[in-house]
């Protein structure tokens, strides 16, 4: 899925901020912590971690943490009827390098850390907070790899790698 941008000389283009995306279907998240490792591969221009997200037409709504390697910025956006930028910082985002990340979602507060930062790079209180949704990714220009992703949310704990492996084994038995 994804949304097409404007047409130029009868050629359709993709709006990279609304590029194809995937949502993890196993759990709907409200409050909690998501942590793991991410790596934007060498051709990557933009990677977005989707949190409290859900499908909306051909795209998604919820929160997006946009890592833009080309412009060296990190932004938090909320998408619904309209897209609103909630925070942004200049940040060198190396491609081809594993980086630790942590996301905290508590009520209307969203905090994001990357690499070895002791203080959150993003720390926002959203007056029109999205209450729940799914975890997902969107990428443009190249691959985004995730590793060791753990979720502690709403009283449960999930290891995405183990959960997916368990789901694959269950599907194989069915």
Account of the protein in words:
- This protein has a six-stranded antiparallel beta sheet, with no helix packed on it. The chain has a six-stranded antiparallel beta sheet with strand order 11-10-9-4-13-14.
- The protein is 8% helix and 55% strand.
- It is mostly beta strands.
- It has one helix at residues 160-173, and strands spanning 4-8, 11-14, 21-23, 32-40, 46-56, 59-68, 73-79, 83-90, 99-106, 109-114, 122-125, 134-140, 144-153, 156-159.
- The protein contains one helix and 14 strands.
List the topology elements:
Layout: E1 4-8, E2 11-14, E3 21-23, E4 32-40, E5 46-56, E6 59-68, E7 73-79, E8 83-90, E9 99-106, E10 109-114, E11 122-125, E12 134-140, E13 144-153, E14 156-159, H1 160-173
Mean pLDDT: 86
Strands, count: 14
Overall, the morphology is globular
Proportion of residues in extended strands: over 45%
SSE series? EEEEEEEEEEEEEEH
Estimated structural class? mainly beta
| Overall helicity | under 10%
Largest sheet: spatial strand order: 3-12-5-6-7-8
Rounded to an integer in angstroms, the radius of gyration calculated over CA atoms is: 16 Å
Q: Which spans of ≥5 residues are poorly predicted at pLDDT below 50? A: 165-174
Number of helices: 1
Largest sheet, in brief, is: 6 strands, antiparallel
Q: How many angstroms does the end-to-end distance come to?
A: 28 Å
């Amino acid at each position: 899925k994804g949304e097409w941008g404007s047409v130029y000389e009868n050629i359709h283009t993709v709006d990279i901020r609304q590029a194809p995306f995937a949502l993890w279907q196993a759990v709907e998240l409200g409050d909690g912590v998501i942590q793991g490792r991410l790596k934007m591969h060498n051709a990557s221009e933009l990677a977005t971690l989707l949190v409290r997200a859900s499908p909306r037409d051909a795209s998604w709504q919820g929160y997006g943490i946009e890592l833009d390697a080309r412009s060296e910025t990190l932004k938090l956006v909320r998408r619904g009827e309209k897209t609103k930028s909630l925070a942004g910082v200049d940040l060198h985002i190396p491609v081809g390098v594993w980086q630790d990340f942590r996301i905290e979602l508590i009520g209307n507060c969203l905090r994001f850390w990357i690499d070895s930062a002791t203080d959150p790079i993003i720390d926002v209180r959203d007056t029109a907070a999205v209450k729940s949704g799914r975890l997902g990714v969107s990428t443009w220009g190249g691959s985004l790899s995730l590793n060791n992703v753990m979720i502690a949310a709403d009283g449960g704990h999930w290891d995405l790698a183990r959960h997916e492996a368990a789901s694959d084994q269950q599907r194989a038995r069915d």
